[in-house]
Design brief:
single chain; alpha+beta; Beta Polymerase, domain 2; 9-stranded mixed β-sheet; 6 helices; 18% strand; elongated; transmembrane helix; receptor; Inositol 1,4,5-trisphosphate receptor-interacting protein-like 1
């Protein structure tokens, strides 16, 4: 790069000198001599600079060569020193291999011991489980369709547990459907002719529960009266009517708001979803409740320990509950409605 710059400067100077000679042809002889002397001096200076640059380049090449020779000699000396101590490295390598072998043998012995311990504990737990199963089998009646004395004694406690489980399930159902205009299930009531809401089918206990339905916001339920005695039948039909909710701030009024506004800003009314005409359709209600129960069961803690199966049914929700020991019980949930001004709950057809 420096050589190129000097050559460029020399060419520029020659060009200027020649132009100066052309332009100043009329200059005197003394001036031309001074310019020639000046040119000769510049040429000598450039030659000197060329010589210095070549000398410096040679010195740099010599220094680089000496560094490479020193590096090669250093690596050679290290290699020779390592060769001189090969006995030390051989002993060190043998010790490392011996240490690794000891560590592997110790790890393998620990794994074998842990497997033996785990297998022995598993055998003990299997024996305990078999013993428990035998004890449970002894407490079950020998004849199909009967209930042993031990199960009869446990009926009140088991029924309470089932009712509490169903109430927790219903509470989750209410939370999932609180923003929709659908019936709200109230706490369950044990019903039936057998032992306080419990009967038996083959070797499974069957729990009969009645769940009163509460009308959603803006709706009311009315039992249809018997035409003969002017009294509600034991199994009644439920008539659904809309109520004015213009004063409420949490919903639009189904009676006095236009259909387009209701369609855009609010869920459909109960008449448009689970009713046939103005009556609550129990088949539609049962299908809706079965879907709601499946969604609510997933969020319960009991779902990790027990399996809930919704059985096919048209007018009641039948559930089968199975635990990890394959113990099974059946729950039948029927729907009802509370009479106005009384605590009587009537089932709905």
């Amino acid at each position: 790069m420096a050589r190129f710059a000097l050559e460029l400067v020399a060419r520029i100077l020659r060009y200027l000198i020649m132009n100066t000679q052309v332009v100043n042809e009329e200059l005197d002889k003394e001036t031309r001599e001074r310019m020639q002397q000046r040119e000769e001096m510049l040429n000598r200076e450039m030659a000197r600079l060329w010589q210095e640059i070549e000398q410096r380049d040679q010195e740099l090449r010599d220094q680089e060569l000496r560094k490479q020779e020193k590096s090669v000699s250093a690596w050679a000396s290290l290699f020779l020193a390592a060769l001189q101590h090969w006995q030390f490295w051989a002993v060190a390598g043998g010790l490392v291999l011996l240490f690794g072998l000891c560590w592997w043998l110790r790890k393998r012995s620990h794994q074998t011991a842990s497997k033996q311990t785990a297998s022995s504990s598993e055998d003990n737990s299997r024996l305990d489980t078999d013993k428990k199963e035998q004890e449970e089998k002894l407490s079950i009646a020998l004849n199909v369709g009967t209930i042993s004395a031990q199960r009869l004694l446990d009926v009140p406690e088991s029924l309470t547990t089932v009712v509490e489980l169903v109430d927790e399930l219903l509470r989750r159902c209410r939370n999932l459907s609180r923003n929709a205009f659908v019936p709200q299930p109230k706490p369950a009531i044990a019903v039936g002719n057998d032992i306080d809401g419990m009967s038996h089918c083959e070797d499974h206990a069957v729990y009969h529960l009645l769940v009163p339905l509460k009308p959603p916001r803006g709706h009311s339920f009315h039992l249809e009266m018997d035409t003969v005695e002017a009294m509600p039948a034991r199994k009644s039909r439920l008539r659904v009517e809309l109520e004015c909710t213009c004063r409420r701030e949490d919903m639009l009024c189904f009676l006095h708001c236009c259909k387009e506004e209701l369609r855009q800003n609010q869920s459909a009314s109960l008449l448009d979803t689970l009713c046939t005409g103005h009556r609550l359709d129990m088949e539609k209600t049962t299908r809706w409740f079965q879907i709601l129960v499946k969604a609510a069961w997933v969020v319960l803690p009991q779902s990790t320990r027990q399996c809930l199966t919704v059985l096919p049914s048209r007018r009641s929700c039948k559930l089968r509950l199975t635990d990890r020991s394959s113990n099974t019980l059946l729950i039948e949930v029927m729907f009802g409605v509370q009479q106005d001004g009384s605590d009587t709950v009537l089932s709905i057809e």
